[in-house]
Structures are given as structure tokens and as C-alpha cells.
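Box S1 | Example of a co-folding query
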Amino acid sequence: MMIKKAGISALVVCLFLVLLGQGLVQAQGGLTILDNSAEAEFPLKLHFSLSAKSDVTITDIRLHYTVDRESYAQVTSEVYIEFVPDTSVDVQWSWDMRKTGGLPPGSSVEYWWTVEDVKGDKTATAPVRVQFNDDRYSWQSLSEGKVTIYWYQGGQSFAAEIMLAAQQALARLAEDTGAYPKKPVRIYVYANSYDLQGAMIFPQEWTGGVAFTRYGIIAIGIALDSLSWGKRAVAHELTHLVIHQMTLNPYTGLPTWLDEGLAKYTEGVLGAVFTAYLERAITENSLISVRSLSSPFSAYAEESYLAYAQSYSLVEFLITSYGQGKMLELLDTFSEGSDYDGALAKVYGFDMDGLDALWRDYITLQYQTAEVTTAVISPAPIRIFTELASGLLLDLRLATQGWLWRWG
Ligand SMILES: [Zn+2]
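Box S1 (continued) | Returned holo structure for zinc ion
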């Protein structure tokens, strides 16, 4: 115990000396940071400010920042601050997310400043982490395992129901695919889609939920009276997040049918509307090829219903015919950056066309032997459409957010 204490004291002394040392260097040069801070204006802006002085003119100020998210290469952004050189300066800079795309609620940014004066003296501030929180609401939180749910409307039982759905989805996903969350997952449950849209820089009318896979964050709008939809949507987005954590690599993404198929499969039994679309496509011989389903889905509702239904069925076929081990092997192969045909061939011994042929036999047989379903393809109930749309949004993000990093 004594030894431990002595160790801690020594550490404290060392730290003190280090701090003192830095202070002395600054005093000698006369270049001093007086103040620096950052403030979030969610979801639009992140404001940074700095005051510094020196005995000579300050000539160069830069802000450096990195976004906390999973990536294979650490990206540090550097901002050259425009200011009038002087011995005493106050500068501000705002990161306008409308120009760059936004950050999800609960994300964080680490930043530091470097300042230089005309004599060439330089100083840097210690890195500080600023949280980009959605402070428009008073969030409560509930944690279990790797999952934390944040919510602000509804009681403890509402959050507990969502947590149960999340845990059940993770258990189902692990059983079917061997995939599990490698990192913590945070789920921000907004009270409705309107509130959720207020958290987005470029909201879509139909945004139901978004998985910000690199951040380990899901944002979703679940009204108290749409809990059953919400539980499926949480299972869906959570699957995207875990699968992306499992397969992140700098080379290739996943084929869309696999990504969306796993997400829909983890939700539970395929809904009647999707089944009806699938059945009709079999009857009319208008199924979409696996190769086409590997690209982002059509934005047209009719086609995307079928695309999601087929993706579900393809994943069901692979899992029920070849088992969990092969699916995990497939995900592992994709994490190494394999191309679609190569990964399938390595794990299952057939490429996308081979899968297409085998699956068509499987699905045709399944629907021939099944009782004729009576589901009618009617105008899409808004909630099912929202369910669809959350997947579409993810694809959209993947395609359009390449400027600095990808949301997916
Ligand atoms: Zn999806």
C-alpha cells in the first residue's frame, strides 16, 4: 500500500514538473494562451475560440481537430485562422456543418490550437474533447452490456422495452451470424420523426432512423404509440451497426442485399406486405438479380419493397442452408476487403450468379409449397414505408457523404 502511495506521489511530482516546465518555456518566449474553448450549437455548428498574447506579434494560429469515429486512417483537419496579426489576439472559428455534412448526436471532436509569433516561438494547447450533444432535450439513459439507450419522452418501461428489443436482436444476430458489437453502441431515441429531423442537417421527409455506423450511434424517432415499429427499427439499425463494425475495411463495402438482408432478418419474420411483393415477383417472373441487389436499392417504393424482401430471403437461404459458421466466415472475408464474387466463391463455392440460381430454386419451391397468402399489395402504410426508408437513407448516406468521412 505504501509503495503504491509513493508511486502516485512520484507521478504527481513528475506531472507538476512537466506543467511547470511548459509554463517556464511559455514565459521565456512570452507567448501565452489565455483562454480557449469550444461550444456546440447542435446540429448546425461547433464554435471554437481562442485568446493568446505575446511580447511580439502573433502571426499564425491554427485549429486542429479530429472526429471520434472508427476509421482505418486517423484524419486530422487543420484550419488556418484569418486574423489581424497583433501581440494580443482573440479569434473565433465556426465549423458550419451545413457545408460539410453533420455529426450525429453524442459524437465528439478532439481539438487543439497551435500559435506562433513573429520570433518563431510556438505553443500548442493540450487536446480537449468537446461533445456534440443534442441539448435541446433532457436525455435519460439506460445501459445494458454494450448498449446505452438515451431517451427523453416516456417512462422507464418505454426505454426498457426498447432495450429488450435491442438485446434480443443482438442475441438473434449472434446466433444466426456469430456477429456481435465490438464497441459500445448508443441509441438516441427521439420522441417522433419530427424531432429526429431536427437533429439532421439535411433531413429527409421519411427519415425514421439512421445508423451512424462509424460512430457507434443510432438516432431514431419512436413515438410512444409506435413502439412495436420502433422495436423492429432498432433491431434493423443495430444490425447495420454491428455488421459494419465487423466488416469495416478501406477497400470494399458490403453488397446491399447482405447488409439490408441481415438487418431485415434480425428484425424478425418478414412482414406481409414484403411477402406479397416477393410472391408476386415469383409468379410474374420479375425477381431482381443478386448482382443488381448488390448495388444500392431503387428509391422507388415498389421496387425497394421487393429488393428488401429478396434480401431477407437471400440471407434466410444462406443461414438456413449453410449455417452460422459460413455466414461469419463470409463477414470475415468481407472485412479483409474481398470483392463480392470472390468472397462468395471462397466461402460457399459459388459466385453471385451461382447464388442467384440456387436461391431461385429455393424460393420457388418455398412458395409453391406454401399456402397461398392473402396479403394484398395496397398503398404503403406510412409506417412500413418509414421502415423501408431508414434503410434507404443509410444507402444514401453511404453514397453522398464521402467528402470527409463516410457516415456508413
Ligand atoms: Zn437498412
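DSSP finds twelve helices and twelve strands in the chain. Residues 236, 240, 260, 263, 390-391, 394 surround zinc ion (CB under 6 Å).
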